Amino acid sequence: MKIYKTIFVAALTCVVSIRSFSQTISASLPKDYLTKEFHAGRRDALRKLMPDNSVTVIFAYPERVFSRDVNYAYHPNPDLYYFSGYKETSAVLLIFKDTQHGQDGDYNELFFVQSRDPQREQWTGRRLGVEGVKSKLGFSKVYNSEEFANSPVDLKKFSTVLYDGIPEDEGNMKGLYNAFRNKVNVPEMDKDVQEVVSMIAQRGNPGNIGRIMTYFKGKFEQPEYKDNEFLGPFINKPDSISLAELKSKYNARFGGLAAYADEMNALRGVKQPEEVELVKKAVEISSIAHAEVMRAIKPGMSERELQGIFEYVHKKYGAEDEGYPPIVGAGANGCILHYEENNVTEVNNQLVLMDVAAEYHGYSADVTRTVPANGKFTEEQKAIYQLVYDAQEEVFKLCKDGVPYSQLEDKTEEILANGLIKLGIISKAEDVRTYYPHGVSHHMGLDVHDKGEYGKPLKENMIITVEPGIYIPAGSKCDKKWWDIGVRIEDDVVIGKDKCTLLSIDAPRKWQDVEKMVADRSIFDLAKFPPLK
Questions:
Q1: What is the number of helices (H) and of strands (E) in the chain?
Q2: Which pTM does this prediction carry?
C-alpha cells in the first residue's frame, strides 16, 4: 500500500509541477495577443460573406527546409491565424456557411490539427493538440489531422468550395492536400501561369492594365503564357473588354479560388480595432529603430551592421521577427528595389536606403528611410529627396475614406513627373516610370503586402503604405551627377473618415530632420568589440 501511495504522490506532484510550469510560462508571455473571441468574430464575419451552400477550406502552411534536417523558423498561414489563432503546421480548418448535422451533433466548423507527440515536442516545441485547440482557441469540433482523409464530411455536396490553391511544394502537407483533392474536384493549371492569371483576375482594373503589361512583359513573351486560354486574348489585346473576359473565364473555372480571394481581401483589408493596435506597435518599434540607426550610422559601418542595429531594437521591444528580409542598400545598391544581400563592408559617404520593419504578434510594419552616411545630403541627393517627400505629402492628403485607390498613384506620377522634368532628368511625363518603377501604396497587416481591395475606394480603418521613390542607376540617360541616387520614403497610415493618421512619426522624414538626427549620438556609439584574430 505504501508503494502505491508513493507512486500516486509522485505522479500527483509531477502533474502539479507541469501545471505550475505551464502557468509560469503563461505568466511570462505577452498579454496583447489577439483573443479567441476576436478569431471567432472573424469566422462569423466570413460566413456572412460566403455564398449559399458553401464551405471555406483553409490549410496551414507546410514546413520549409533550411539546410538538410533543419527547417526555417515556421511562419503560420496568416489566413489560418486570422480565423483561428492557430500557429502550427499540419492542419486544415473548414468553415461552413450553414449549420451542418452530424452523428455527434450540429456544427458550423471543423478543425483538423497537428497531433501531440511528446518525443517530437521535446525537440521542436510544444503543440496544442486537440485538447489545447479546444481549451485555448475555443473550437468544439477538433480532430487530429490524420483523421481528415477518412472524415465523413462530403465536400462535393457544396455549391462552392472556397480555398486558396495548392502550393507546388506541398512538403509535410502533402497528405492533407491529397485528401482534399479526393474530396473535391480541383481544377489544374501550370502553377506559375495560374499565379499570374489569379493576380490579374484579382487586382486588374482598367487603370492598371499598362502596368500589368509592363510588369509581366517577360512572361507574356513565353508560349505557355501567350497560348493560355485566359491570358492569350488579353495579351493580344490588353483592354478593359479582354480584362473583363479574363475575369469571367477565371471565375467560371476557378470560382472557389476567386471567391476565396474576394472574401479575404474584403475582410483582411479593413482592420479591426485590435489589429490596428498591433500594427501601431509594430510601426512604433520600427520607427524607433530607424531613428536609432540614423544616430548610429557612420561611413565606416557595413550594411549588415546597420541591419543588426535594427534587429536588436526590434527584439528589445518584443518584436518576434522582421516583417520581410531587411533591405540596407548603400549607393548603387539603393537603386535595387529588393536588394537583400546587405554585404557591403563600408557604406562610405553614400546615401543608404533602409527598408526595414518589425513584425509584432504576426502584424508587420513597412518603413523606409534614406539617409546620408556622413550626415549631409549633396545638392543632387537633396533635390531628389525633396521631390519624393513632396509627392508623399500630396498623397497623404488623399488617404481618406471614399478616395479611389487609383488616385494615389495618379497623384504620385504627376508630382514625380513634373519634378523630374524640372530637374532635367526626363523630358516628358510618360518617362517617369523609368525612375519610378513601383506602386505608391499597398495594404499591410498580417502580410507586409497584405490582402485588401485595390480596385475600390479606400475605406476607414484600412492600413496602407505611402512610398514614392526615385531610383537613378549608373548608365541612365541623364546627367551623370544624378547616377546612383536611390531615394524611397515609406510610411504607414490608417485611413480615417476625413484624413489619415500617420503611424511612423518617430522616424524623421524631412531632410533637415534626418541630418539633425544623424548628428545626434547613439547608444551604440559606445559599443566596442575586440578585432577578429
A1: 18, 18
A2: 0.90
